[in-house]
Design a protein that fits this description.
Blueprint lengths: L2 H10 L11 H6 L10 E5 L5 H8 L3 E6 L2 H10 L5 E5 L2 E6 L2 E5 L7 H4 L4 E4 L8 H15 L4 E8 L13 H8 L3 E10 L2 H6 L2 E10 L1
Parallel strand pairs: 1-2, 1-6, 2-5, 6-7
Antiparallel strand pairs: 3-4, 4-5, 7-9, 8-9
Length: about 210
């Protein structure tokens, strides 16, 4: 993970990847995870996403991991929450009510830091990483979460037309990373919309990864 690249993005306010509203695919597809009730949901590479607050409003406990301490602090400030800050291994833990965010490198996160989780929402993590890091990421996420079920969003577009991130991660790669460990179901695929859709044409796909 290129720390300097992402830190510079946040310092310069070049955060077009940050959505101004809750991701509609999360709202639409969260029931597909079939969570039995209030659950502990992990959001890797979460930025200051409004998805975190929305999940908490649905009664869930939310834990996120984010490289940028600036982004983590901005989330709590924008939502008028005052977190308790402690050190957790190599990361800093910010906690307020049902939301806790771990600031630091995802690959420095340990199972002890994260604790048990019931599900994962990956909208902006797998697609944020270059190809050479995605296999290591998917393996580490699986180890951290005990192969918890995932709601995963990916993009598929002509990578030669746009450098990324977000990167194109086609269905063949999703299956290569996850088929040995999950039942992988594609539940929707729609044309890319929003700011990214103005930059490139392709599909935005939602997957459910169920253990077993």
């Amino acid at each position: 993970m290129d720390h300097d690249f992402w830190h510079q993005k946040w310092r310069d306010g070049q955060i077009g990847f940050h959505e101004k509203d809750v991701n509609p695919l999360l709202i639409k597809n969260l029931p597909a995870l079939k969570l039995p009730g209030p659950s502990r949901i992990f959001v890797p590479l979460c930025g200051k996403s409004h998805d975190l607050a929305w999940l908490a409003e649905q009664g869930h406990t939310v834990v996120g991991a984010e490289l940028s301490q600036q982004a983590v602090e901005a989330f709590f400030e924008e939502h008028e929450m005052v977190p308790t800050v402690t050190q957790s291994g190599a990361l800093r833990r910010y906690r307020s009510g049902p939301v806790e965010l771990l600031a630091g490198d995802f690959f420095d996160l340990t199972e002890q830091d994260l604790g048990p989780v019931d599900a994962v929402f990956d909208r902006a993590a797998l697609v944020a990483l270059p190809a050479e890091m995605r296999r290591a990421y998917s393996a580490r996420l699986r180890a951290l979460t005990g192969t918890a079920p995932q709601l995963l969003v990916s993009f598929d577009y002509d990578q030669s037309q746009m450098k990324g991130p977000p990167f194109s991660v086609p269905a063949s790669e999703i299956h290569a990373h996850y088929d040995p460990f999950y039942t992988v179901d594609q539940i929707s695929s729609e044309p890319i919309s929003g700011p990214l859709g103005q930059r490139t044409k392709g599909s935005e796909t939602v997957w459910i990864l169920s253990p077993g």
